[in-house]
Amino acid sequence: MKTSKAVILDRPFHASFRDIQLTEMTSDTILCRTTMSAISSGTDMKTWRGQQHPEQCWYPLVPGYESVGVVESVGPEAKTTLKPGDRVMINECRQFGDVCAAWGGNSHYVIKNSVTAPAGFDYAVKIPDNVSDSDGVLAYLACVALKGVHRLNFRPCETVLVVGAGMVGLSAVQIVKILNPSAKVISIDPSPRRCEIAQHYADNVFLADGAETEKIRELTHGKMADKVIECSGNPAVVGTLHQYIKDGGWGADDEPAHIHLQGDYPEPIALDWWHRWFVKNATITMTCALAPGNKEQVLQWISEGKFSTNCLPVETWPVEKCHEAFCYKQEKGEDVFKILFQWD
User: What pLDDT score does 310 carry?
Assistant: First the structure.
């Protein structure tokens, strides 16, 4: 296998579907064939607009990391239980022969080995028989949310606010409810359509129109949120999060509010109005990507019916129309929840 068709971002605001050079197959290679992939509303659209830092990736590149497919062959030295014919989450490939891999998730054929997939979470994972290809694609960003949620130290009957009702945010809502069933989970988003989608998952949903702070105050009887998971990807939102969180941290067992930053922010973040932040004693954490074991856990939850994508509106496009799909997503913005690519 020397070449493969792939989605290529040749430059900002231009995608093509063409051949690329693959790296050499080694004795530990797992060769996968992609059947479905996706456009990430955060990272991929940031790359489409030319907002990535040049030390991270450069053009031309293969975008994406949400992909599923079939194992074609397994090398004799591959450390895996996978076998040809298995449906798998493929995800990252970090090296190609003649283009920047970026995350490499939108290539028809993918060589996975110790060179092209070296990170601890880059390995392919078998998809349960009762989990669809589209769910296998959508599972990836749920894994990103899971890594972030694991940073929180949950207590019974907390109020957890999730800011942003995209794929990461709505995944975080569901994961919090799985891991801390007694929690009251609130979702806010500036998009009425996304708020409507969030109604299927969160305990309470508020439109982020300036009135949401008082609604949260009323709902929590003045206490505000114990924890906030920020999933909007909007750097301007981060500096406003103090308005949603409780006071605390003044006593030995008086746990302060915890804010976890889960977004991929294309611009600098400023925590302005410092006097409002300072008196909160808040803990602020952040995570990137996912952790080993997250794929298996999310796929298990989907297989068991604990995690659902049934109410998430996705659009499926033929991969050959990748340029039109990116343009469409850019034009429609948050009105388009998710675009999947079909590779048949």
Answer: 95
Residue 318: both structure tokens together:
């033929």
Do 41 and 58 lie in one domain? The reply is yes
Same domain, 27 and 78: yes
7, 24 Cβ separation under 8 angstroms? no
Q: Alpha-carbon distance 343 to 341, whole Å?
A: 6
CATH of the domain at 172: 3.40.50.720
Structure tokens given for 44: 């991929």
pTM over 0.85: yes
Same domain, 58 and 91: yes
**118 and 166 together in one domain:** no
- In this predicted structure, the answer to whether residue 19 has a pLDDT above a threshold of 90 is yes
Stretch 213-223: mean pLDDT: 98
Beta-carbon-side half-sphere exposure of residue 17 (alpha carbons within 13 Å): 14
Residue 41 Cα distances to 10, 196, 232, 302, angstroms: 19, 18, 10, 22
SS3 state of residue 266 = coil
Output b/e per residue, 140-173; b: 16+ Cβ within 10 A. bbbbbbbbbbebbeeeeebbbbbbbbbbbbbbbb
User: In this predicted model, what pLDDT tens digit does every residue of 321-334 receive, in sequence order?
Assistant: 999 999 999 999 98
- Written as six digits, the tokens of 178 are 């799985």
CA distance 153 to 8: 41
CA dist., res. 126 & res. 129, Å (int): 9
The vertex-41 CA angle with 330 and 30, nearest 5°, equals 125
Work out the average pLDDT over 50-61: 90
Specify whether the CB–CB gap between 207 and 181 falls below 8 A. no
Q: What is the spatial distance between Cα 59 and Cα 57, in angstroms, rounded to a whole number?
A: 7
